[in-house]
User: Fold these one by one.
Assistant:
Number 1:
Amino acid sequence: MKKAKKVSFYQYVPLLFLLLTSWQVSAKINVIASFSIIGDMAKNIGQDRITLRTIVGPNGDAHVYEPSPADAIAMAKADVILINGLQFEGFIKRLIAASETSAPVTETTKDAHIIRDPAGGHYHFYEGKAVFHAAPFDPHAWQSIANAKIYVKNIADAFCAADRSGCTFYQDNARAYTSKLNALQQKIKTTMAAIPEDKRTVVVGHNAFRYFEEDYGIHFLSPQGISTEAEASAADVAGILKEIKRNKASAVFAENISNPRLVAQIAAEAGLSVAGTLYSDALSDPAGPASTYLAMMEHNVTTLTTAVNNGKPRR
Ligand SMILES: [Zn+2]
Ligand SMILES: [Zn+2]
């Protein structure tokens, strides 16, 4: 009988090596994005090398979001955590602490051009009740495409740090996405420049568009909380009505994250109509008109120009 050939451990080494390298190629990094806009950018840059979880999803309001135990579990397993910072995500510090995650937290607004808010914050209206959101640096920095390009760079850097072998891939994707941002920025500048001077003031429910205002020269008015009574305060509405008159505002817009009742009331009392919905702090769901950051910016510009140019989109 033939003696069975003895198999040495070393014969397995090439196989083991092959298994390890293929595992490395398929291992994705776990990425947490705090809200939908950063999530969309992360998806563009990370594509199939990342497993992405977005905490505050489409049409969600990051201000009032209550994290779930599943969020904490995901956070604990994360390799990369991407947040906006500037006190936008009220829940994030508690969630990071509770999850005991060891992943680095990237503030995507790092090195962006940040506007200091002279009022130290802005108002939200929940069921007519004014809530002051203290944020000395305006957190809505993504409303400037120039800033979005910095978000993209920060996201690519975070991915490179977590996954060195994928760095070229992330940087290539960031470059491709940035060229789309450049093209859109140019298009928006041209479109907005065509709006007549006397139609450049509009009204929104909360002050989320100051970066957009600074980049494209549209003036946004929003109600300021005067009273904190449970019912919609007549004083809050009276204040904005005076501003609308003084500035000859041309249109009022609802926002996807907030109840449209207050802006509807303002529009009715000002003799204006609600001319559409702007996306401020969250994307729409996939079937909606603002399911990506690029689509959101384009939708907002089309909605604005259509309203102030008497129903005709100006090209
Ligand atoms: Zn806010
Ligand atoms: Zn906001």
Note: Residues 311-315 have pLDDT under 50 and may be disordered.
Number 2:
Amino acid sequence: MAPNPFTLEGKTILVTGASSGIGRSTAVACSQMRATVVVNGRNEARLDATLALMAPGSHVKAAGDLTGDVAAIVAPLPKLDGVVHCAGIGHSKLCKQIEAEDIDLVMGVNFKAPVLLQAELLKQRKVNKGASIVFVASIGYDYPNVANGIYCASKGALVSYANCLKLELAPRLIRVNVISPGMVWTDLIVHGGMTEETLREDEQNNYLFHQYNQPEDIAHLAVYLLSDATRRMTGSNILFSAGAKRL
Ligand SMILES: NC(=O)c1ccc[n+]([C@@H]2O[C@H](COP(=O)([O-])OP(=O)(O)OC[C@H]3O[C@@H](n4cnc5c(N)ncnc54)[C@H](OP(=O)(O)O)[C@@H]3O)[C@@H](O)[C@H]2O)c1
């Protein structure tokens, strides 16, 4: 039988944001594709809930705040064949109301944390030759929304950074790609300030299939980018808009 190019068998993958939403689905999907998965998030109970959903394996919990002591989180990790930088927060404020703390908060989690985590993983030699690095940005980096200025900017910064990182890691055949999702049904939007009624109306009226993404839709793309099927793919930023009509 021909080898399956989509399997993650034999690979060890770190997924941040694995205690919820897209990161949780990605961790589960990676385990189903036979990877060993290292899950990160701050909330240990919710990480345990993720582990309980995963296919059996020698999965590892690496709980911790990525805006804190990242070196300590990285030190005990095994060598990695893939990283999905999924942890992030939403933010909603009109531009005229933005204060310095808003910038520190959102850029801190959505930009500074993945950049410093990635640097620490490289410094501590945790990333194997031929690995795959995936960043979860947002279509917002290029498609504006009212009251979403800092969030969109944090994702734009991530896209630009990933584009440079790919150059530095290419000599070791490490690829760097970005997934930019449109709306996905997770806590980030459900608790993001819009009522569920407004979200359902938006989903009905402004999406070609009248459906937002589900977390597993993004997870399956992450698996593809982590697998050998994409071993020569680097520097891509894939929009996963769920057919948002305004794009
Ligand atoms: N949902 C959408 O519509 C959508 C669209 C485009 C892009 N995205 C992006 O997708 C990613 C995942 O979001 P989601 O929708 O799945 O949201 P979510 O369900 O709220 O999950 C966010 C995850 O980030 C983790 N996290 C937040 N702050 C952290 C910190 N300081 N240190 C470590 N982990 C932290 C949370 O874990 P703990 O609370 O346990 O720390 C949680 O696991 C984010 O980067 C988001 O910007 C989402």
Note: The beta strands are 12-15, 36-39, 60-61, 80-85, 127-136, 175-181, 237-240.
Number 3:
Amino acid sequence: MEIDPEQAYRRAMGAFATGVTVVTAADADGAWLGMTVNSLTSVSLAPRLLLWCLGARSARYAPFAEADRWGVTVLGADAEATARRFAKATTQDLQAGDAETLAGIKVLRTGLAQLACRTHHRVEAGDHLIIIGEVLDARTHAGAALTFFRGGYGEIAGRTD
Ligand SMILES: Cc1cc2nc3c(=O)[nH]c(=O)nc-3n(C[C@H](O)[C@H](O)[C@H](O)COP(=O)(O)O)c2cc1C
């Protein structure tokens, strides 16, 4: 049987295990939203740049595409419910107590790492928008990581030293 090329591509990329993050940005009314994202990639050290890819069909496309400043929180192994929550359109608003501030940008209170970013460049690519951010500030906390692999969540403890 012939394999559908899109399915083959999805399966191949699903074999690429990633961490899980929540990107946070404010909409035009100043309300903060979160989106579960695993397309995060480090781009450059000097200057410090990272990217993530925003789906063009997202109901929240405008606020995330237009945000000048936004946050990234790398989720820990205990945050699967957080990842599921921010992947659902109805529960993506940040509630009081969810967030703290880094360089004036809201990031989630939980997490292994938090980064505050300013949009450096945007590139339309197929059905996604590549958003490249300059890192304004970053901080890290200890703990095991939440992972995403072949469509399912897992965890990895990694090195403790
Ligand atoms: C593990 C995981 C990773 C995801 N990564 C991305 C991503 O990198 N970019 C993206 O646009 N959506 C990603 N999504 C989908 C969004 O979290 C969200 O479900 C989607 O945008 C639909 O909701 P919306 O229409 O309200 O935006 C991911 C979802 C999951 C569960």
Note: The longest strand covers residues 113-125.
